[in-house]
Amino acid sequence: MKSAVIVFPGSNCDRDIAVALELVTGRKPAMVWHRESELPDGTDFIALPGGFSYGDYLRSGAMAARSPIMAAVRDAAARGVPVIGICNGFQVLTETGLLPGALMRNAGLSFVCRPVRLTVENSQSLFTAAYDSGEEVVFPVAHHDGNYQADEATLDRLEGEGRVAFRYRESVNGSARDIAGILNDAGNVLGLMPHPERVVEAAHGGIDGRRLFEGLLETVA
Amino acid sequence: MKARVFITLKPGVLDPQGKAIHHALEGLGFGGVNDVRAGKLIELDLADGTSDGDIEEMCRKLLANTVIENFRIERTQDA
Fold this sequence. Notes:
By secondary structure, chain A is α/β, with parallel strands linked by helices. Chain A has helices spanning about 15-25, 60-65, 70-80, 90-95, 150-160, 210-220, and strands at about 5, 30-35, 45-50, 85, 100-105, 110-120, 135-145, 145-150, 165-170, 180-185, 190. Classes of the chains: A alpha/beta, B alpha+beta.
């Protein structure tokens, strides 16, 4: 798998995802600066990392979504290349329009930073193939703007089309229908607020996130 | 030439910040507040001749997220 991690000014989980990808795939991802306009040839997986791109100015992910590299990411997504956006990466994906809805300030207004229990709602996707549907996993969250909102029709469509990939099993941030992660209509773009890359080895206190990357490796490679 | 862009949450979109401000006002003893919605004001200093269409495009492409926000443009005179 030839993966690329997009690095924005203010990204701070770019190293975490790079370490997780190297651990699982055996290959270092290309770190691609946001000012680039092209992805390395043959890129077959793209990760938008967590962090606070541009200091969350204007809206979380708003500036990053308009950076030069995002045109290349949008083109790759349209060609079917799998794209994952974690935390700030999820915010960037909604701001880019690759995923519907928006991530707003947490309902409790607090920054939430702790492990949370999630349900894998759909195990048929590229990203969740190594999980069972309905399985409980624990991933950490660390965000201030993770309150997923969309209009009722969009929420119904996401549910009806099996595009809710992960759902919180506990109250976290006020997200509509406890949505933690969603897929695009083609199923090759996943955005989620929790951090699977932070639970890939025993020393992390859990390995529930590891299978996301293992499953991907199997489908992509 | 200057313009002000007012960005507000669409009606019906939950506004946790507005709610917190509302509670704080009540805590200070201001009883008559029915609701609070928080938004943004962006002031633009623009080249003469910038059209309404240009400003609208700025709003749609970056300044507002039209999934959740409305915007209103107000042209102002230089002070």
